[in-house]
Amino acid sequence: MLSTMLASRALALVVLVAAWQIEVEGFPRNEVFTNSFLVRFRRDMTLKEASGVANLHGFINLGKLLGSNREFHFLHRSVPHARTRRSLSHMRTLKSHPDVRFAIQQTGFQRTKRGYNRLRLAVLEEIQQQHQNEPTDPYFPFQWYLKNIGQNGGKPRLDLNVEAAWAQGFTGRNVTTAIMDDGVDYMHPDLRDNYNARASYDFSGNDPFPYPRYTDDWFNSHGTRCAGEVAAKRDNGVCGVGVAYNSKVAGIRMLDQPYMTDLIEANSMGHEPNLIDIYSASWGPTDDGKTVDGPRNATMRAIVRGVNEGRHGLGNIYVWASGDGGEEDDCNCDGYAASMWTVSINSAINNGENAHYDESCSSTLASTFSNGAKDPHTGVATTDLYGKCTKTHSGTSAAAPEAAGVFALALEANPQLSWRDIQHLTVLTSKRNSLYDAKNRFHWKMNGVGLEFNHLFGYGVMDAGAMVALAKEWKTVPPRYHCEAGLIRSPKKFTTNQSVILEIETTACQGKETEVNYVEHVQAVLSLNSTRRGEVTLYLISPSGTRSMILSRRPNDDDHRDGFSKWPFMTTHTWGEDPKGKWRLEAYISQETQQPNHGWILDWTLMIHGTKEAPYKDLPIQDENSKLAIVKKAHEDYMKKKH
Ligand SMILES: *[C@@H]1O[C@H](CO)[C@@H](O)[C@H](O)[C@H]1NC(C)=O
Ligand SMILES: *[C@@H]1O[C@H](CO)[C@@H](O)[C@H](O)[C@H]1NC(C)=O
Ligand SMILES: *[C@@H]1O[C@H](CO)[C@@H](O)[C@H](O)[C@H]1NC(C)=O
Ligand SMILES: *[C@@H]1O[C@H](CO)[C@@H](O)[C@H](O)[C@H]1NC(C)=O
Ligand SMILES: [Ca+2]
Ligand SMILES: [Ca+2]
After folding, report:
1. In testing the pocket of ligand 2, which one of 297, 301, 304 has its CB within 8 Å of the most ligand atoms?
2. Which CATH code of 3.40.50.1820, 3.40.50.200, 2.40.128.50, 2.40.10.480 fits the domain covering 137-473?
3. Active-site positions?
C-alpha cells in the first residue's frame, strides 16, 4: 500500500518535473505540425528529379536543404499551415516512393523575442531559413505582394505565393507580356534585358519606340511601373523582381494622347498576336460612376481575333484592371472588364481588405494586390521612370500586371494552355485566403458546384504555386459552345415600390449543336430604360440558386435617356454549374433616394457559354480537398443523376 503510494507520488513528481520543463522551454506545448516536410533521398537528385517526386504526390519542392543533393524541402498545399496531428498519410505516400529514404513532417514552434509580435517572429524565422533561395534585389523585402512576412502590418502569407512557382522551376521563360499603357522605360537597368523590342510599338507616336513622354510630374510612369511588376530582373542589385523575372515585356504605348480612338485600341490589342502571349491593360472608360462604355467595333474585332487566332490559335490572354471607381461604380458597366474574353482582376491590400478604390462586379474573375493600407509605405514596389524604383505604385492598375506575371509562369509550365484554360486554372487555384470586404457587404458564398466566390474578389487571390502545379497536368478543356438560352421581349415596368422578376426556363440548347452542360460565362444581354439609371439594381439567379448582382446602384449615374441597349451583363459566379432549369432576373429601383423613379426592362436575352462535355474529367486528382476535386465530384454526381 505504502509502496504504491510512494510509487504514484514519484510518478506524480516525474510528471511535475516534466510539466515544469514544458513551462520553461515552451516546448512542446504549442508545437504544431506544419505543411513542410524534410525529404531525404537514397541517392543524389537533381532539382528537377526531386520536383518530379514532389509533384507526383501533391507536394511542391521548395529546394535543397543547405545545398545537399539528397535532402529537400517539400511543401504540401492541402495540409493546413499548422495542425496538431501528424499527416501520416502524406508521409506514407512520400515514403512509398523507391528513391525516398525518409520524410519528416516539420513541427512549428515559437522563439519569442520580447517586444515583438510572436506570429511575425515565427514566420520571419522560417523565412530566414529559406533565405538562401530568396532574391537579393534591394527592393525585394518591400515586395510584400510577392512574399508577405507581415511587413507594414500586413498579413503573413497573404501573397501571390510566387516562390512556390519559382521553386518548381518556372520564371516565365519564353513568354511575352505586352503592357498597353503610357510607354515603358525600356532602358531601365531592371527591364532592358527582359525587353522584347520586336513585339513593341508606339501607337501614340507611330514609331517602334514606346518610350514614355517626359513631363515634370512623371505623369507617364504608369507603364514602366506595370512592366517591372511582370518582368523586373532578378539578383541584379536593382529595384526588386518581377513575378515572372525571366519573362519578356513588350511596350505598347497607346495612352498619353488627347483622345483615344477605336483604331489605336484595336491596333494595340491586335499587335503581334503571335509574338505576344499576354496583354495587360490597366485602363478603361472613365471611372466616374456614370459611364457605360466598352470596346467599339474594331477593338471588339481585335479582341475576338486575339482569342481565336492569337498564339497560333491558342488565344491571347487579355488581363484587365477591374477599375478604380470605388463603391459608387460597377465594373459591369465597363465593357472591357466585363468581357468574357478578358480576365478582370480586382485588388486586395496587405491585410486582406479590399482597397477603398475597388469597384465590384460579377464579371471579376480573381484578385491580386495593391496599395491602400493605413501605412502609406505599403504601395506596390516596382521599377520607375529613368532607372529609378518606387514603393508606391497603386490602384487596380497595379493588380492587373501581377496577374499577367502569374499567367506568364503558367504558360511556361504549359505552353499549350488556351485562353480558356487560363480562366479555368484561375477559377480552380485562386483562394479565399483571408480576403474580406472592409464594409461587410459582400460575403463569401458557394456556387452550385461548391466553388467559393465573392462579389468583390471573384474566386479569390491568385496562387502562382498552385497554378503552375495544375498547369503542368492540365488537359485542354473541351470545345466551347454559345447557347442562346432564352429571350423575353415584352416590356416590364418596375418602380421604387414594385420590383420586377422575369424568368427564363431553359434546356440550355439540349440536343442542339450548341448544347451547354457545364457553364463558363453567362451573359444577361439587356435593354432597359429608366428615369435615373444609377438607381437600378439587377440580379441574375441561376437554376442552382447562385445569385449574381449584375448591376449595383451607382448614385452618380443620372442618365434618364440612354439606359442600357443590348448591354451584356456578365457573371463568372456560376462557373461549372449545370445551366438547365429556371433563370431569374430581378430588377429593383433603389429606395435610398426620395424621388420616385421607375424603369422598364425592354428585352432580355440569356446567353450561356460553356462546354457540352465535362471539363476536368481526364485530370488526375492530387488533393481530395482541392477545388478541382470538389467540382469534379459535383460533375460526376450530375452525370449519375442524368443517367
Ligand atoms: C518559344 O515560343 C515560340 C513561339 O511562341 C516557340 O515557337 C518556341 O518553340 C519556344 N521556344 C522554347 C525554347 O520553348
Ligand atoms: C462593325 O463590324 C461588323 C463586322 O464585325 C460590320 O458588319 C459592321 O458594319 C461594323 N459597324 C460599323 C459601324 O462599322
Ligand atoms: C421606356 O420604355 C417604355 C416601353 O417602351 C416606354 O413606354 C417609356 O416611355 C420609356 N421610358 C423612358 C424614360 O424612356
Ligand atoms: C411607395 O409606397 C409608399 C408607401 O408605402 C408611398 O408613400 C409612395 O408614394 C410609393 N411610391 C411610389 C413611387 O409609388
Ligand atoms: Ca532587380
Ligand atoms: Ca469603372
Report:
1. 297
2. 3.40.50.200
3. 181, 222, 397
